[in-house]
Write a structure and sequence with these properties.
- With 351 residues, the protein is α/β, with parallel strands linked by helices.
- It has two domains: 58 residues, Nicotinate-nucleotide-dimethylbenzimidazole phosphoribosyltransferase (CobT), small domain (5,6-Dimethylbenzimidazole Phosphoribosyltransferase, Chain: A, domain 1); 278 residues, Rossmann fold.
- The protein is built from 14 helices and six strands.
- The chain has a six-stranded parallel sheet with strand order 3-2-1-4-5-6, with helices on both faces.
- Helix 11 links the parallel strand 5 and strand 6.
- Helix 11 packs parallel to helix 12.
- The N and C termini lie far apart (49 Å).
- The relative contact order is 0.18.
């Protein structure tokens, strides 16, 4: 494991001093000021450049779908991959709106699907580790080798984006039944009760949620009996291929010194894995929003992250993170382009 890049407190202090000189009362832009300072310390530049975002959506299927924990059938994962590439999904629209590069990475989609050709809406990378995970309720979701390979695919996706001059990374996911896997991971890594974390996912009813809670309880008991201790153990036992890829994606970004904008419930579970494996990864994460999924707020609290938005979202796909991107762009543009008191000829004490 490589060392995580350090943050420049000196540069952050320079950015804070600039904020005090801009033509506004200090603190009047609230968290926008904090965001500018946060990015300055991580970019090595007291006046950070405009963000160039890369969005990577990792797709994979989950064996636990056979337990009836989702409102949608498993083949929807493959259908949505095609929708992403054809430009019809929410994240496809938001990526275009924000001029962000969009990649879809198949790390384990079970249902066969044709490879779209000539799409201008995003790039598809077919790198399936296997045809989805096993049913985590009854056996380990992945082998150690499969988990490691998915992690490495995520890390490679991050490095590809960084090598193409992207300076903020957004991870997304697609995988029917992945809220069950994410809930199990969050419970395992935070000691939270399944009743407090398991939500409605794609829109199941209350009775189905009670069944989903039991599935998570059974999976946790099975994995604990199998000897799960480390974050990687839990990832292998109850995680997903796309969640493993996301954890690798976030870790590689932090190692390279590139900030990450977290999306929703599933991506936060992946971030918990990455941070439990290496706490320094947490210094490179920003929470875009809190989703409607029941346990998301608790998972963010475990990472000491305060979300920028609360819009009642529960879609995933990196949609919430991409919606928050213009807010961060605005924070940096204000920091970069506002006049100082001296430049404007305004007495600082006047404000």
């Amino acid at each position: 494991m490589n060392a995580i890049k350090s943050i420049s407190s000196h540069i952050a202090q320079e950015a804070q001093e600039r904020q005090a000189q801009l033509t506004k009362p200090m603190g009047s832009l609230g968290r926008l000021e904090d965001l500018a300072i946060w990015f300055a310390g991580r970019s090595g530049n007291a006046i950070p450049k405009r963000l160039q975002a890369a969005i990577c959506v990792f797709a994979a299927d989950h064996g636990v779908a056979v337990e009836g924990v989702s409102a949608f059938p498993a083949e929807v994962t493959a259908q949505m991959v095609i929708n992403f590439i054809n430009g019809g999904a929410a994240i496809s629209v938001l990526a275009r709106e924000n001029n962000a590069a969009l990649s879809i990475v198949d790390v384990g989609v079970k249902t066969p699907y044709p490879t779209p050709t000539g799409s201008a809406h995003g790039r598809l990378f077919r790198s399936p580790v296997c045809a989805g995970t096993a049913n985590l309720r009854v056996t380990a979701a992945m082998s150690a080798a499969e988990c490691k390979k998915a992690w490495q695919i995520g890390a490679g996706s991050a490095m590809h984006a960084i090598e193409n001059a992207k300076n903020i990374l957004i991870g997304g996911e697609m995988g029917i039944a992945n809220t069950t896997s994410a809930a199990a991971l969050i419970c395992a890594l935070t000691d939270a009760a399944p009743e407090d974390i398991v939500g409605l996912g794609t829109g199941i009813q209350a009775a189905a949620r009670l069944h989903k809670i039991q599935v998570v309880k059974d999976a946790l008991a099975r994995a604990k009996a199998a000897g799960a201790v480390t974050p990687q153990d839990w990832l292998r036992e109850v995680g997903g291929l796309e969640i493993a890829a996301l954890a690798g994606f976030y870790t590689a970004a932090a190692e390279a010194g590139v900030p990450v904008l977290l999306d929703g419930f599933i991506t936060t579970a992946a971030a918990l894995v990455a941070v439990h494996a290496n706490p320094a990864v947490g210094e490179w994460l920003i929470a875009s929003h809190v989703s409607q999924e029941q346990g998301h707020r608790s998972a963010l609290a475990a990472l000491n992250l305060t979300p920028l938005l609360d819009l009642g979202l529960r879609l995933g796909e990196a949609s919430g993170a991409t919606l928050a991107l213009p807010i961060i762009q605005s924070a940096l543009t204000l920091h970069r382009e506002m006049a100082t008191f001296a430049e404007a000829g305004i007495a600082a004490g006047a404000m």
